[in-house]
Amino acid sequence: MTDIMQGIDVLVSEVGPRDGLQSIKSIMPTQAKKDWIKALHEAGIREVEVGSFVPPKLLPQLADTAEIVQYARTLPGLQVAALVPNLRGAENAIASGAHKITIPLSVSETHSLKNLRKTHAQVYDEVKGIVALIKSQPADKRPHFEGSLSTAFGCTLEGAVPESTVVKIGEHLLALGCDEVGLADTTGYANPAQVRSMIKAIWAAVGKDKLTGIHIHNTRGLGLANALAALDIGITTFDSSLGGLGGCPFAPGASGNIVTEDLVFMLDSMGLKTGIDLEKLLKVRDIVKAAVPDEMYGFTPEAGVPKGYVQTSKGGNGWGLGETTLAAE
Amino acid sequence: MTDIMQGIDVLVSEVGPRDGLQSIKSIMPTQAKKDWIKALHEAGIREVEVGSFVPPKLLPQLADTAEIVQYARTLPGLQVAALVPNLRGAENAIASGAHKITIPLSVSETHSLKNLRKTHAQVYDEVKGIVALIKSQPADKRPHFEGSLSTAFGCTLEGAVPESTVVKIGEHLLALGCDEVGLADTTGYANPAQVRSMIKAIWAAVGKDKLTGIHIHNTRGLGLANALAALDIGITTFDSSLGGLGGCPFAPGASGNIVTEDLVFMLDSMGLKTGIDLEKLLKVRDIVKAAVPDEMYGFTPEAGVPKGYVQTSKGGNGWGLGETTLAAE
Question: What is the pTM of this model?
Answer without folding.
Answer: 0.94
